[in-house]
Amino acid sequence: MPTDTPWFLAIGASGQDGLNDIRAVLTGLPPTLPVIVLVVLHRPWDMVSRLRHILAETSSMPVVEAEPGQKFAVGTVYIGLPEQHLTLVEHSFGILVGDPHRRHRNRTVDLLFDSVARFGGDRMIGVVLSGQLDDGSRGLAAINRAGGHVMVVQRCEDREKGMPENAAVFEGPIDCIGTTAEIVQAIVAAVNADRNSPVITPDAVA
Questions:
Q1: Architecture (CATH level 2) of domain 7-205
Q2: What is the pTM of this model?
Q3: Are 11 and 37 in contact (CB under 8 A)?
């Protein structure tokens, strides 16, 4: 694979617990980690979204609301608006899938993950964080089949089965099931294992 092919880190979650997980991961990532971060969080469609502002408060990397046909930059976190779903289309270019009639409903994480599995090459990581139902399970399996790394947050045992639990048992092995801190360490380790990526010490995530 060419040395200029970027790493893609795709993260999916839902609800307040999912938002907290996303914030924890984005806070823990080293700001110099050479990844393009694509985030999907299920949100209400009938309310103004403050997600970019909320994530930017603690993220180690800048957070941007993606624009149609935008070329993604390494070291940046991208999100879409609730009615425009973030996807990867080729190399480091993305597209926002308009969905005013909610055709995709609670399958927007799968939509992102499937696009990353198709266009992300072998430098891709899919992460399912807290959330209800099973969005992300199929897309995470697609990333796994395409040769990417797959990770799932481990929640308290008394929680109702949701996105991470369904993803963990859907298909194939999971590279990391753990806390958000352990997922951050696994992400850094996966990127550092690529000899074409700059070395960043695990101490950076402490």
A1: 3-Layer(aba) Sandwich (3.40)
A2: 0.87
A3: yes
